[in-house]
Amino acid sequence: MGGFLLNLRDPMGVPFHPVVFQVLMILTFALHIMFVNFVVGGTLIALWGRLRGDKYGIKLSKAFARANTVNTSVAIVLGVAPLLFVQVIYDPLWYNANNISAWWALFFLITIAAAFTCAYLFYLGKSEKGGNPVWSLLSLAALVLSGVIIHAISVQMLHPEKWSQWITASGKVNLFGNRLYGFSLPRFLHFMVPSVALAGVYMMLYSWYFREREDRDPNYVQWVGELGVKIAIFASLIQAAVGVWWLLTIPSDLGFMTNPFFLVGALVALAFIGWLFVARKDPAANGLKTALFAFVAVFAMAASREALRSAYLSRFNYSILTYKINWSIGSTLLFFATFVMGLIVISYPLLLAFHAGRTPDSRAPLKLEGLNKLGRLVVFLPVLWLIVVVALGISISIKNGVLF
Amino acid sequence: MYPAWLVPVLGSGLIIAIIATFHILPSHLATGSFWFNVWLERKAYKENRPELLQFLKKYVLLILIFCFVYGSITGVWIWFSATVSSPRAISSLIHNYVWGWATEWVFFIIEIVAIYVYYYTFGKIDGQHHLRVGWTYAWGAWISMVIITGILAFMLTPGKWLETGKFFDGFFNPTYWPQLFTRTALMFSVAGIYAIIVASRLDNPDLKVEITRKAALWGIGGLIFGAIFAYWYILKLPPEAKNLVFGGELPYLKTLLKVAVIMGAVVGVYYVVFGLIAPHLSNPVVGIIVAIILFLGIGAGEGFREGVRRPYIINYFMYGSSQVIARSIPPKGVEEEVSKLNENGYLSVLYYLPEQLRTITENNKLEVGRILVVHQCAACHTLEPNGLLRPLPKLLSGMEKDDIRDLLDSLGDYAYMPPFIGTDEEKDAAAAYLATLAK
To answer: Are A365 and B127 within 8 A, CB to CB?
Structure first.
């Protein structure tokens, strides 16, 4: 059974050790799914606040309406990286799983575009109470549908033994790619329920950030933080129950319950729930710590799910460790150097935004002279990048005789 | 082989083309528009004109929504469409260029952070800081083009990579520089139209005329240099590609080229008339129409670039449609697959076939033939007579099974067609199925 999977691997091999791609995939996926959760949970809260209709509810709804649009585009851009890396180490699985549900894979992008469009229409709504809640509801529906599709494709990845049966079940070979085949409710919920928890965490972070802004009503800011921690605790407990449910459905031959990644992941998740009870005493003050801890928990969950995937695929002797390597040190360096540069570059606008957001709108533009040095470096870095790459490009082009 | 994806009436190749077209507009606007924004913002600070900033803010929101949502979604969409219709080709590109794409992704992150901060900190931070964020975006966006062009150009001219298999040998390939320069010049032309549309909404008539004139000069410069570099690009096309276009093998490619030139000329006339001669007459509606014309021109150019590497999807390396590796790359340990598949059969790599379709019999011949045709033909030819993409029933109409069988044998002799790959028995089955379409 495993033979055909290994034969489907790209004969080009991978340009660096496959574990590096795996780690990057988990890391970038964790960032991506965290923002996805912010958006899904944020849309729910925006809708709830809007329907509640009181002063605080509307204020919260408007805050989330705005955040949702930004977080959606961040989630999309962050999603590009794991999408890339999964194709490097799991190409036979990814391409098959998408291919047999081709129309759905394409429809996935339409539902995301629809969710975003509706989120913007809700945000731009002019009435005193904010946008028309129907937009928010439609956005939420489109988000859930996107989740269903990508979830089904991910489940399909884990079952190479079924691909052939799925597309030949009707007696004729179905190459239309018009059906979705995989779905597991507990697994799906394990991705969706954290949205509510993370929206709660986001509210704590919001409360932490704005409690220092003097033109904000401190009672409102306090209320957001307290509500946030309550929501986070409630949803995390449900999530724990969903996790147990999912665990019970995983075939015992995979030995997942004793898998070290799972055990660490479960411990981190429980520790996070424990921390929420501590943070409840002063949710605003603990906002940043909670958000960071939440990311660690999301990362640990992502790592456990990856361990689960490895366990499923070991049934077919598929291990990323056996992927052929055609070392490409130069391009690897290009990426990591650019990555470090990118972190420096984004630190500047992020710091500017951090200070600007904490300052009342009525103030004169902030001078922030302490950031000038960083700013000068940051505008220069992309130019430096270009100089290096162009010099490299010209020398290679001349060497290969392809410049003119 | 992965299962093929059969798209009735349209053909899976057309799906990629349609989706890619949606991406042209937001992607070029995303890279081009900010050069105008930073220019205008500098002017606002230098001449102390805060009204310009208000104005800029309004338009950045448009770029933000249009480019950063629909631009990135359509970009990922192209990726998914390639995934489902040409998985082996996209896989091959990714396994060579994963670090290139990952590097481009770093610039996407820079772009998105920069543009949101730029938008939300208008008037809240010092002008110099704000302008720096604008520059960061402009450079970041252009560099994303510097990167993706390497991979796009690779597909047509893999160059030295065919011998060495090395990342940078393929990246800085024979058509890289001309394509990068052409795109960059056209990017300024896109920025010019964008600026004119924006300026036509200004209340201050003097300012409107001033900006429109400057933008028209940018636009004209972009078109002139774009044309020069595009000519350079044509000169650097591989001989087989030139033969397809100018040797009369594929007349539609020449038509696409003509369309691109005519559209460019129309845009040039617009710049001269509404930009230089009568800038006060410019208005958003005409501007948007001309923007669409420019994008149609760029779209025709993209269609040309995609079509000119036939019969390959990665030139000289992998055939389109069947996605069979046509050439060994020894440094990478990659072997050509044609001879092996001709010997063992194309069916031997279709893991998903049920047992009863693995050996050809009189009973299953038509079904096996259909599957082979879907794999090797259907990405570029629709199977229905009313199909949009070079429908096979029309092309084969009136032919008998034996004629079709001969045609399959000689397919590789056409400059733009890949050979039909498989054993004689498989060709028989395919011909038998195709004969049912020809009736």
So the answer is: yes
